[in-house]
Amino acid sequence: MNRYEFKVNRVFGDGSAVFPDEIIIDRMNRLVIHRKPKVVGCKETKIHYDTIASVSCDKHMLFADIHIETRGGREIIVRGFSRDDADRIMELLSF
Questions:
Q1: At residue 39, what are phi and psi to the nearest 5 degrees?
Q2: Burial 23-35 (b: 16+ CB within 10 A, else e)
Q3: How far is CA 64 from the centre of its chain?
Q4: 46-88: per-residue pLDDT in tens?
Q5: In the 3-class helix/strand/coil scheme, how is 23-81 assigned residue by residue?
Q6: Could you give the CA distance from residue 31 to residue 94 in angstroms, rounded to a whole number?
Q7: Which residues on adjacent β-strands are paired with residue 78?
Q8: Sheet holding 52-59, edge to edge
Q9: What phi, psi does 21 have (nearest 5°)?
Q10: CA 91/CA 45 separation, integer angstroms
Q11: Number of neighbours of residue 63 by Cβ within 10 angstroms
Q12: Residue 12 burial by CB count (10 A; 0-12/13-18/19+): exposed, middle or buried?
């Protein structure tokens, strides 16, 4: 499988409970996509693997936050993943 999609928990995420944030890892195109759905449309941020400087995970009792920083100083923080999903994201982005 070349495309992995992870949605935050509706209770613990920062965004809307109706439209949870998601991270999509597209290994074929070497992209990480952060998607913030809205009532109409969505906001998407795409980061190429080559521009990723670091990936870290803050684990809490019931959920985890993912931090992705680029070489240009841009940072994506997505809060509210299950701990298992966060572990899988970290595994997929460790290269």
A1: -55, -45
A2: bbbeeeeeebbbb
A3: 11
A4: 999 999 999 999 999 989 999 999 998 899 999 999 999 999 9
A5: EEEECCCCEEEEEEECCCCEEEEEEEHHHEEEEEEEECCCCEEEEEEECCCCEEEEEEE
A6: 13
A7: 66
A8: 52-59, 64-70, 75-81
A9: -65, 155
A10: 21
A11: 19
A12: middle
- Between CA 24 and CA 21 the distance in angstroms is 10
Element holding 89 (H helix, E strand): helix 83-93
User: 31: which 2 tokens?
Assistant: 């992209």
* pTM for the full predicted model: 0.87
Looking at every residue in the chain, the average pLDDT score rounds to 90
Q: What is the DSSP string of 15-32?
A: S-SSS--EEEEETTTTEE
- What span, in angstroms and rounded, lies between the C-alpha atoms of 89 and 20? 17
CA torsion, ordered 78, 24, 46, 75, to nearest 10 deg: 20
Q: Which two tokens stand for residue 18?
A: 């109706």
